TrEMBL record:
Gene3D superfamilies, alphabetized: Alpha-L RNA-binding motif, Pseudouridine synthase I, catalytic domain, N-terminal subdomain, RNA-binding S4 domain
One GO CC annotation: cytosol
Organism, scientific name: Shouchella clausii (strain KSM-K16) (Alkalihalobacillus clausii)
Any one Pfam family match given in the protein's UniProt record, by short name: S4
Family indicated by similarity: Belongs to the pseudouridine synthase RsuA family.
Domain RNA-binding S4: 2-60
Keyword Isomerase attached: yes
InterPro entries with a match to the protein in the record: PsdUridine_s_RsuA/RluB/E/F_cat (IPR042092), PsdUridine_synth_cat_dom_sf (IPR020103), PsdUridine_synth_RsuA/RluA (IPR006145), PsdUridine_synth_RsuA/RluB/E/F (IPR000748), PsdUridine_synth_RsuA/RluB_CS (IPR018496), RsuA_PseudoU_synthase (IPR050343), S4_RNA-bd (IPR002942), S4_RNA-bd_sf (IPR036986)
Keywords for this protein: Isomerase, Lyase, RNA-binding
Protein name per the record: Pseudouridine synthase
GO MF assignments: lyase activity; RNA binding; rRNA pseudouridine synthase activity
EC number: 5.4.99.-
Signal peptide: none
Amino acid sequence: MERLQKVIAKAGVASRRKAEEYIVEGRVKVNGETVTELGTKVNPSKDAVEVDGVPLDKEEPVYHLLYKPTGVVSTSNDEKGRKVVTDFIESEQRIYPIGRLDYDTSGLLLLTNDGEFAHLLMHPRYKIEKEYIAKVKGIPERKRIKELETGIVLEDGKTAPAKAKVLSIDKKKQTAIVRLIIHEGKNRQVRRMFEAIGHPVVKLKRERYGFLTLGHLHPGESRPLKPIEVKQLKELAVTKPS
């Protein structure tokens, strides 16, 4: 027996968190009966589960790495009709992004139909590094960079210790290129951190997720993850932080 939200996630319909929302909203049926309790357990091989009236089809898990361009929404659909990340990947399965990158942020984004995998990578308990390259207004002093490293107090809490380094400066244009490595995933976190030290972001790109990099991909290009990469990501995620 498995929790209902876990079964839905495994089927590739949505992440576990989203599946929980579906259950509470009354969009899930088990053997013809609507279920709204999150503690419900089902037998995946015997019980008939439906989401929005559609029976679960157990799909083969797929994993993609996308170089997300700027001006693209990190969802599988957008009510405003804007381009979404799934527009760049041809897949017979229903895939969705693991986490998000802002509309105006480019870089490495993972997509999958494996809800358990997505849940594992996004769990705040595990410290998977994410490396960003930011072009910011002004030239940050060392004490400002130190603030990024020790943690910034935002409206939703203090950020965890990070790694930051000024890579280059342009005195004429009064801008700087800064590398920032974090392991959290607060909403618009990198931009808010730089705003908090008085150096708003002009341009932002995520270059690394764990051990994965963009390699030779160009904006809008993608590639499937290799089985060994999926295995290593799972191992990385379940490693308890020191």
